[in-house]
Amino acid sequence: MDPVEIKVEARMHYLSKLYKEPPPLSLLDKILTDEGVQGARVAIKENNMTGRLIGHRHELVEHRIPENADVVAKAKEIAAGGADLIILDLELTDLLAVADLPEMADKVLLNIRLSDDDLRMEQCRQNLFHLPPSWAMRADALAQYLVWKKWTNWFLISGKGTKDQQYAAAIKRSATKFGAKIVEEKEYKYEAGSRRVDSGHQQIQTQMPLLTQTRADYDVIFAADAEEAFGDYLMYRTFIPRPVVGSQGLVAVGWHRSFEQYAGTQMQNRFERAANRAMTERDYYGWLAVRVFGEAVLRTNASDAKTLKAYLLSKEFGVAGFKGQGLTFRAWDQQMRQPILISGPRALVSISPQEGFLHKYFTTDTMGFDKPETKCRFVRN
Predict the structure, then answer these.
(1) Cα separations (Å) of 7 from 50, 52, 294, 303, 306?
(2) Backbone phi, psi, residue 105, to 5°
(3) Calpha distance 171→182 (Å, rounded)
(4) d(C-alpha 133, C-alpha 139), whole Å
(5) What are the residues whose beta carbons fall under 8 Å from the beta carbon of 58, sequence distance 6 or more?
(6) What digits encode the pLDDT tens for the residues 151-205?
(7) What Cα–Cα distance (Å) separates residue 271 from each residue in 50, 224, 279, 343, 345?
(8) pTM
């Protein structure tokens, strides 16, 4: 069989910093240094399996720089090389610094790391698309399930970190949106560093009942601990026996290692063979980013940013993501609409949107900020 002539070449750039990661609360979870990019590596092979049959060649160029390196200088270098399609695995300050470069104005940038609502609202950018669910989407996904269960009285406990506070704000919004009530609210102010000493469990065993003691009755403890300081320690240690939901316990995520529906098992197995570990949520969005570009190249027979951006925002676009339906982008904030997994530590519990939560166009738009609610007014570079 003669080789197919290469008609389209698509080069995708993966830009990330090797940020210092905090140690996980549990030794069962190892510190990962390749999260996100491993998913992209799996996806580029899948893109080329199809591409080689029709004359498309896909390439992934990795730029994984040290935490103290100049990400702006690297981004300018990438842009100068003619890059149009860029995956950003960056924290907020770095991500906005890159997105706001004049050289990036006409590129297509995919955020695979951050859930910040501001990035989809007042801080939205016309060149920036978002793959992970926002905090509002995660909170709404859990809220729908809790309301369906008639668990509508919530005890909110939040951490001190910026992401913790962002998630807490989203949870309060969801309570108002779906008719639940936050009957008590506290902030975790202890230092959790002693948990690794020999008597650490005793200190935690004393802290958690005190933290969760309140006169108000509640159905669930809603933990906003996105920075992982205390959430895992709530379970089985609360003053009264109640489920823990939120950032720990029952969680709302875009991907989970226990997910096996809609051929999810095959995806999990492919990833584990390639990376020798389980697929994380960021790995999934690294994979999905490459597949988004691959699908757009396939359907448009082009690889330039202008053509691909127009297609990504069109009614024709949809990418398979092992969630039972095509995943699309919201035109008003460029957030990917998608079902969200409601999962325990070891098994899927449900998938939101829940039955009965209706929308005129997409039931997935019942989660997060819908078009009438958006404050996104794209900042032109």
Answers:
(1) 13, 10, 14, 11, 18
(2) -55, -35
(3) 9
(4) 10
(5) 9, 10, 11, 12, 44, 47, 48, 51, 290, 293, 294, 297
(6) 999 999 999 999 999 999 999 999 999 999 999 999 998 765 555 554 457 668 8
(7) 18, 29, 6, 20, 20
(8) 0.95
